[in-house]
Amino acid sequence: MHRVLHIYAKEFSTSKAMAKSKYEYVRTFEFEDRCLQNCWIVVRLDGRSFHRFTSSHKFEKPNDKRALELMNRSAAAVMEEFRDVSLAYGQSDEYSFILRKNTDLYNRRQSKIMSAINSIFSASYVYYWNTFFEDKKLLYPPSFDARIVLYPTDQNLRDYLSWRQADTHINNLYNTAFWGLISMKGLSNNEAEKVLSGTVSSEKNEILFKECGTNYNNELPIYRKGTVLVRKLVNLPPSKSKKHVICPLHVDIIGDSFWEEYNEILNLKDLILNKDFKPDDIFYLVKRS
């Protein structure tokens, strides 16, 4: 004998009365965390325990180009998702995302913006791992911490980015000299630290040149200057239709020339067609352009 189970839709209807359940009071524990209006929103991600991560995966020292390119691709994925991220800057295991000062993304809720950008970046890092490390298995997932800082003026924002690029130069010069002494001169870690202790930039350059035969100025710009991701509107062959792309640049962002060339960033203007774009350059195509 077959039993027939009768389900009465009326009993399972989701009325407004049910939506307003007695448990809904817990929402009052949430607090308002909107970012202040008319401020640049900067989300900075940093690799968590990345010294262990890079050691476990045997990254090349002092720089692993594939790892940096993976960071850039992951950052581009964030910019593909959020059009209000007008610029991003990255070096080593960190990336800063600059949201337009007039953005209304997630109603400027700090926790939503920070968690969304962090999760997309982290997921993309894992997703694109095999693209850049074909011969190396990902042993465990990486993780990144995140923070949001607000900058009220354009100069504050430029000073922030100048600080990060200056930090790139300082750290990379030290690391290049440190690992050069180890690999070229056979020094131990402690011995290399003692040689570099208390030295200024000019002295590190001299040590690199005399002891390691390395001219620091000949090191790749991606190592010395980091990477800045910018948006461009370009014509792509063969159709030559207008496309929105994200381009990685390894240029100085401390001086005025960059900001004059990309004046739409600070002026909050729409992208204009870039006629100097070369299709052979590296770029990431924004699919939802």
TrEMBL record:
It is an enzyme of class 2 (transferase). Binds 2 magnesium ions per subunit. GO terms for molecular function: GTP binding; magnesium ion binding; tRNA guanylyltransferase activity. Residues 155-235 form the Thg1 C-terminal domain. Mg(2+) 2 binds at residues 46, 93. Signal peptide: none annotated. Keywords: GTP-binding, Magnesium, Metal-binding, Nucleotide-binding, Nucleotidyltransferase, Transferase, tRNA processing. Its cofactor is Mg(2+). Its EC number is 2.7.7.79. Mg(2+) 1 binds at residues 46-47, 93. It catalyses: a 5'-end ribonucleotide-tRNA(His) + GTP + ATP + H2O = a 5'-end phospho-guanosine-ribonucleotide-tRNA(His) + AMP + 2 diphosphate + H(+). InterPro entries: Thg1_C_dom, tRNAHis_GuaTrfase_cat, tRNAHis_GuaTrfase_Thg1, tRNAHis_GuaTrfase_Thg1_sf. One of its GO terms (biological process) is tRNA modification. Residues 23-152 form the tRNAHis guanylyltransferase catalytic domain. Pfam families: Thg1, Thg1C. GTP binds at residues 46-51, 92-93. The keyword Magnesium applies. Homotetramer. Interacts with MFN1 and MFN2; functions as a guanyl-nucleotide exchange factor/GEF for MFN2 and also probably MFN1. Belongs to the tRNA(His) guanylyltransferase family. Adds a GMP to the 5'-end of tRNA(His) after transcription and RNase P cleavage. This step is essential for proper recognition of the tRNA and for the fidelity of protein synthesis. Also functions as a guanyl-nucleotide exchange factor/GEF for the MFN1 and MFN2 mitofusins thereby regulating mitochondrial fusion. By regulating both mitochondrial dynamics and bioenergetic function, it contributes to cell survival following oxidative stress. This is tRNA(His) guanylyltransferase. It comes from Acyrthosiphon pisum.
